[in-house]
Amino acid sequence: MDKLIDLWAIGALICGIGYMGWIFSKQRLVARSQDWPSATGTIILSKINANSSQTGPSHTANKTYAARIKYHFKVGPRVYTGSTICLGGVLNTSFKDRAEERIEKYSKGATVTIYYNPANPKINCLERHGEITLFGYLIGGGFALFALLVLM
Q: How far is Cα 110 from Cα 40, in angstroms, rounded to an integer?
């Protein structure tokens, strides 16, 4: 039984460190994007996605909301389509008004500024920041810390 717990803890440690590594790579991409050029684009889709799930012993229904935005823009003769709101990730929440604010800001047909990687315009975004950084480090660090405590 102890070996199974140790294996689980090692797996949790690897997942926690891996998740923090992924967050760090997102932060680096956000930092590099500060120098990217911009193009004018048009919002072609703007809607709210609602995801429901049941959790816990009482099977409580949880709902999260996220804005789903799609846009197209032109770089030289090529037209690109994108859907990245925040380059560093968007935090979906149970607060519907947060998603509604994004829908208002990026309504269908609106003209917007798109930031794109000049070496690969398929990598693009509407906002050059991230919302999941601190939350991601807390989750990854929590997994890693918990695993270390179990291993001790």
A: 10
